[in-house]
């Protein structure tokens, strides 16, 4: 069971997340959950009024953009919001929720220089090659690589037709690389899931890990709710498949495992529907690195 980690100087993340829930209720009451003309103006008015409240300001002020910069950027996101079948933000409320919860991670890791390009991800000495661990049979979770060739995409299309539920419906990892702390966390989550879920439950499945800024921008251009900045682009976040585990009666157990980790201060979690976004906290990082070294060696 994770142990609660708090310090007197940290913002109250429970109050922040509770404030986000209350703000979403307020937005929905003002029409922010719909897509009718005028909703964005109503949403903007609520955000301008509410985000200066004390449950929000310590987190937003601690990000690289600062309080005013976050508010301005979020208003731009609201004004530019377009619904997309690819996006986990199905309406303006969802867009605001994802954006605000991502600011916890911007506060934690926003000072780090992101990986701008594929070359920078591949050259990052702090990242571990997941393929090496997988080939050695030592990786505690499952994933698939993104199909790069026409033949690979054709095979995936056939698989979706003949066995649509055999694996999660995900494009796969563009970069099979992650920080050791993230691998250790996923190993612990996988072990807890295996202990608590029905016996037929398959191993934990990671749908996205480290990304370059260029890839993040590509996802945004395709209509995904890809945040800027993103903890994916500094190697501290992964996305975990959730919907597929409902087939095995294990989704609720996986949700509990992740939320318990969040309550303990180990992670920030963002419910994005089919997958949940999970980011390691600075407080949990040293212990997770030690766990990785203990299990895999340095």
Please give a structural write-up.
This protein has 298 residues and is α+β, with helices and mostly antiparallel strands. It has two domains: 1-111, no CATH class; 113-298, 2-Layer Sandwich (Muramoyl-pentapeptide Carboxypeptidase, domain 2), CATH 3.30.1380. Helix 1 (13-29) packs antiparallel against helix 5. It is built from twelve helices and six strands. The model is unreliable at 3-8 and 151-158 (pLDDT under 50). It has helices spanning 13-29, 39-50, 57-61, 66-79, 92-109, 118-123, 130-135, 150-162, 180-196, 213-221, 251-263, 285-296; strands spanning 128-129, 177-178, 206-208, 237-241, 267-272, 275-280. Helix content is 48%, strand content 8%. The strands form two sheets. The protein has a four-stranded antiparallel β-sheet, with helices on both faces.
Notable characteristics:
298 residues, alpha+beta, Muramoyl-pentapeptide Carboxypeptidase, domain 2, four-stranded antiparallel β-sheet, two-stranded antiparallel ribbon, 12 helices, disordered N terminus
